[in-house]
Amino acid sequence: MSTFTYSGFGLNILSEIPFPELSPVSFFEQAHVNIRFGEVPAAPDGISFSTGRISYTMNNRELRFTVADIGMYYVTGGDTIIIHPHNKEVETRLLRLFVLATGMAGILQQRHLIPMHTGSILIDGQLTLIGGHSGAGKSTTLAGLMSKQYRIFSDDIVVLANGTGNITYGVASYPMIKLWEQSMQALEYEDRSFRVMPGLEKYGFFFHDDFDTNPYPINKIIILKISGDDQFSTERLIAGKAFEAVVEHIYKPSFFNTPEMRAVKFKTITQLLQNTEVYQVARPANCAPDDLLSIVTALI
Q1: Cβ(241)–Cβ(221) under 8 Å?
Q2: C-alpha distance across the termini of the chain, in Å
Q3: Which residues contact 229 (CB under 8 A, 6 or more apart)?
């Protein structure tokens, strides 16, 4: 069987299935992560919960999750993802989607690495993270910054990594920006050739040629939210407010709630905030993308 080698989330990945979303690389050392098809073991001892169509059982070393009508997945040891499709007709794109989201979140949790649900841009060797809950305008803002020649570092997930001197670094996930149809229309984008999921009006745009796998220090975080009025407002968050706002934007937060992972989370975010400015931008529910873009560019 053919295998494919990639870099993603700061890790070397060896996979039995091709991932056009990931950045292809050659490496000669042992892979950090192996992705393969196989039988999924029985559910491990641990906590169990469900979120919509996905059910989970997990502890600090194992994760088993089932996606209705798609398949079962098993993540273990911070280095292995096993995929067992529901049947032979399941689209490979759907199988990949849950590897890149839930599967890799499990890998990072088992490696004691915190993923942030943010995009990011790289300016003068430093990262600005841009976050926001669904509908706040994160990906649309990133696409607007890209159109103004800002260098996009990562669209959806940035992995936090500790460095020397209490500096926290960010590592990119993979080179794809995802946009909803409404954002596509606002930005006048025509290319709808890569639909993220069948039946979902969300599309992917690749930037493989500009993808940077190096870690960079994080110096700013901008969090977008929808305000209750028709005005823009900007607030610098400090101390507890900054901590709470950043923790809210950890990717797959339910994976980081065991006592061991809460300690990792506290230590990582506390160190991040020692050298990082945090801003919150509240925007009207209905605003032109360029108006929000101008507010964000003033902060970076």
Answers
A1: no
A2: 47
A3: 284
Residue the block writes with tokens 């500096």: 167
How many C-beta atoms lie closer than 10 Å to residue 67's C-beta? 19
Residue 244 pLDDT greater than 80, yes or no: yes
SS3 call for 16: coil
Q: Which of 3.40.190.10, 3.40.1360.10, 3.40.228.10, 3.40.50.300 is the CATH number of 116-299?
A: 3.40.50.300
pLDDT of 258-297, one tens digit each? 899 999 999 999 999 999 999 999 999 888 888 889 999 9
Query: Tokens 């020397």 appear where?
Result: 164
What's the pLDDT at 287?
A: 85
Domain spans of the chain? 4-111, 116-299
> How confident is the model over 41-70, as pLDDT tens digits?
998 899 999 988 899 999 999 999 999 999
DSSP 271-293: HHHHS-EEEEEEE-SS--HHHHH
Token pair 């025509």 in the structure block, residue: 190
| Contact in structure between 202 and 179 (CB atoms under 8 Å) | yes
- The C-alpha atoms of residue 152 and residue 140 are separated, in whole angstroms, by 12
Neighbours of 59 (CB within 10 A): 13
Determine the pLDDT at residue 148: 87
* pLDDT tens by residue, 106-134: 999 999 999 999 999 999 999 999 999 88
SS3 (DSSP) at 17? coil
In the DSSP assignment, the letter for residue 253 is G
Q: Is 149 left (phi over 0), alpha (psi -120 to 50) or beta?
A: left
Alpha helix ranges (H) inside 99-211: 104-110, 138-147, 181-186
